[in-house]
Amino acid sequence: LIVGEDIWKVYRVGDVEVQALRGVSITIERGEFVAIMGSSGSGKSTLMNILGCLDQPTKGRYRLNGVEVGQLRPDQLAEIRNQQIGFVFQSFNLIPRTSALENAQLPLFYRGLSLKEQRTLASAALQRVGLKGREHHSPTQLSGGQQQRVAIARALVTSPSLLLADEPTGNLDTESSQDIMGILEGLNREGMTVILVTHEVDIAAYASREIVVKDGQILSDRATKER
Amino acid sequence: LIVGEDIWKVYRVGDVEVQALRGVSITIERGEFVAIMGSSGSGKSTLMNILGCLDQPTKGRYRLNGVEVGQLRPDQLAEIRNQQIGFVFQSFNLIPRTSALENAQLPLFYRGLSLKEQRTLASAALQRVGLKGREHHSPTQLSGGQQQRVAIARALVTSPSLLLADEPTGNLDTESSQDIMGILEGLNREGMTVILVTHEVDIAAYASREIVVKDGQILSDRATKER
Ligand SMILES: Nc1ncnc2c1ncn2[C@@H]1O[C@H](COP(=O)(O)OP(=O)(O)OP(=O)(O)O)[C@@H](O)[C@H]1O
Ligand SMILES: Nc1ncnc2c1ncn2[C@@H]1O[C@H](COP(=O)(O)OP(=O)(O)OP(=O)(O)O)[C@@H](O)[C@H]1O
Ligand SMILES: [Mg+2]
Ligand SMILES: [Mg+2]
């Protein structure tokens, strides 16, 4: 599904160069459940953005489902993202002054579904992450963990084949975290490929493979015992 | 230092009432180190905002340092906050398109310090949280954990007597979390009162008192063994 070869991402800030990724090669098969761990600033979110077709490498190649992503136009990338990928961002990226329901519904816009069908799917997704009764709240009317759960519902509403989740339980208490991980586990058993970034060992334990990133490179990549 | 009596906070969303806090009474002495825990949506951030004079109760009284905060004008509240309180928000609240250094420097603006003195203090604070080399990055050029650490540096730069930190290590790996908690522990030993919201038991363990919030009320309030 995912083949990244010698991926580099270099940013310029003023006259200083920040090498966020330094030659990352990674292969992920369909249906895997991968946890990515590493220190703050090590390059995890940068890697996720590239795998999720939200950003392109400075150097190196990335094939998603056999398609060379590096060669595509922005509109083609947007279509791939919408058709195949669900994304939970580290900072949620919800639309302000817009309800939880409308936020969760957003990815369905391009699917030719009626508004009523969109609302039904979005409402079910919100209920699944424990947000019944908060559908009409806008982001500032939601707690941190509730905003994060809206972002998760939004990522799942299109039933994507690939889910990239950057710290999806960072703002959640233990019980809500376990609920969310249970949902992801179930979806993975049904075939969804899951790649998640986490700092928490208990969350990483749900995955069957753990990749550790350090200073823009892959430090280790090993199978882990499944629960 | 802090005396909250029967604090209620009720929000209206459409024609629905959300009772975020339902009669919370809390007393915190100078120099304490308190951890607040509880489920997502239980009322922790709402309580912190009221204790930090960022928001006022719907009902009930709050005395900070002997002063009835509920009676004050917004400019008086702003002065109290700036003089006495350092605040780490759950969603960081950094100023976009503004460097880490300028963000950390912001609370010093009202203190009659020269720009050079402000920059020196802000730079030292950033170095203390491990952000040397990232001073001139703006928030979008920083990782999630780096943004969180800028928010922490900003909260500490005025050497406040009271620190309210809402999930200060939520985006940090274990090592950075321990570094930050070590800094807070040290400041607490020097007399700073620390109230922190966390979902993580390991982080709560640094405190000497644990308050659990549930459905807008205090469920339990007990002394915990100090490390
Ligand atoms: N747009 C950008 N411009 C410049 N530097 C950047 C940019 N985005 C990220 N960086 C830098 O690249 C490095 C890696 O960032 P990244 O966000 O991938 O880290 P991370 O592993 O997700 O960290 P965290 O655990 O704190 O979220 C950091 O040092 C960061 O300062
Ligand atoms: N401005 C608001 N308008 C309406 N409802 C609100 C507002 N702010 C918070 N709420 C609601 O009040 C309740 C408590 O929110 P709060 O942010 O205090 O929770 P929390 O304990 O910090 O949760 P988390 O652990 O998810 O951050 C939630 O159910 C939330 O939906
Ligand atoms: Mg990150
Ligand atoms: Mg909160």
Keywords:
binds adenosine-5'-triphosphate; homodimer; alpha/beta; 10 strands; about 230 residues; six-stranded mixed beta sheet; four-stranded antiparallel beta sheet; 7 helices; binds magnesium ion
Offer a concise description of the structure.
Chain A has 227 residues and is of the alpha/beta class.
Description of the structure:
2 copies of one chain form a homodimer. Chain A is α/β, with parallel strands linked by helices and 227 residues long. Chain A is built from 7 helices and 10 strands. In chain A, the strands form 2 sheets. Chain A has a 6-stranded mixed β-sheet with strand order 6-7-8-3-9-10, sandwiched between helices. A 4-stranded antiparallel β-sheet of chain A has the order 2-1-4-5, covered by helices on one side. In chain A, a hairpin with a 2-residue loop joins strand 4 (59-64) and strand 5 (67-68). One magnesium ion (MG) binds at residues 44-45, 90, 166 of chain A.
Give the secondary structure arrangement, pairings included:
The structure is a homodimer of 227-residue chains.
Chain A: E1 2-13, E2 16-28, E3 33-38, H1 44-51, E4 59-64, E5 67-68, H2 74-84, E6 85-88, H3 100-105, H4 115-128, H5 144-156, E7 162-166, H6 174-189, E8 193-197, H7 201-204, E9 209-214, E10 217-223
Parallel strand pairs in A: 3-8, 3-9, 6-7, 7-8
Antiparallel strand pairs in A: 1-2, 1-4, 4-5, 9-10
Helix pairs in contact in A: 4-5
Bound molecules: adenosine-5'-triphosphate (2 copies) and magnesium ion (2 copies).
One adenosine-5'-triphosphate sits between chains A (11, 13, 18, 20, 38, 40-46, 90) and B (134, 137, 140-146, 171).
